[in-house]
Amino acid sequence: MGQNQHDVTGYYWFMPQFSDYQGRVMVLFLNNLPFINEKGHIFYPSWLNEIQPKEFVKAKRLARPITLSEFEIDPDEWRKITEENAIVRILEGGKKIAGKEDGFYDSEILKNLTGEWQKATRVLSNTLHRMKIKTGDVFIMWRIKHLIKEGKIDVTGDINKGWKDFDVRLAGEKQLQLQTTEQTVQQ
Questions:
Q1: CA 18, CA 38: separation in Å to the nearest integer?
Q2: Contacts of residue 11, Cβ cutoff 8 Å, sequence gap at least 6
Q3: 3-state class of 55 per DSSP?
Q4: pTM of the predicted model as reported, rounded to 2 decimal places
Q5: What residue segments make up the domains of the chain, in order of their start?
Q6: Helix, strand or coil for residue 51?
Q7: Were 28 and a residue from 35, 63, 74, 140 both cysteine, which residue would form a disulfide, CB within 3.0 to 4.6 Å?
Q8: Could you read off the pLDDT of 128-185 as tens digits, one per residue?
């Protein structure tokens, strides 16, 4: 399991499904495990796909059985997560999952917009590339469309056609607020 919200949430889902196999299920938690990348440098992966296959084979030897106490405690985390029913979940470290509001990534999106028109796909890729806590492209595009409906983003083109069929920019009054803030910071 990588050090990311997707793998850890999947682990919590997995636990109640396999409670009958206590002592026979193994886990490899990549939290703070160093690996060697294709250039020969040491790095700490967040996702399993960042590990080269030959390194993954070596890492497999570090897998350990899931303890009986983990089989008792961790299914409670899954119940807590499902009861919370948050749309956005982030990993706060270790195996701690926290639910966040729908607009959690909105500030990341708005940071990648300017007063100039740009393709929505460009804003999408810039946002995905620059954000520290990752999520998927479909979710970011859904939030962009939501921000358009809220009037925080101006749009030209057809947002219902395809992602490449519309351009976006900061909404008029939002542009003024950002310019004023930038001028204040520069002074």
A1: 35
A2: 1, 27, 74, 95
A3: helix
A4: 0.75
A5: 5-100, 104-186
A6: coil
A7: 63
A8: 999 988 899 999 999 999 999 999 999 999 988 888 999 999 998 555 555 555 566 6
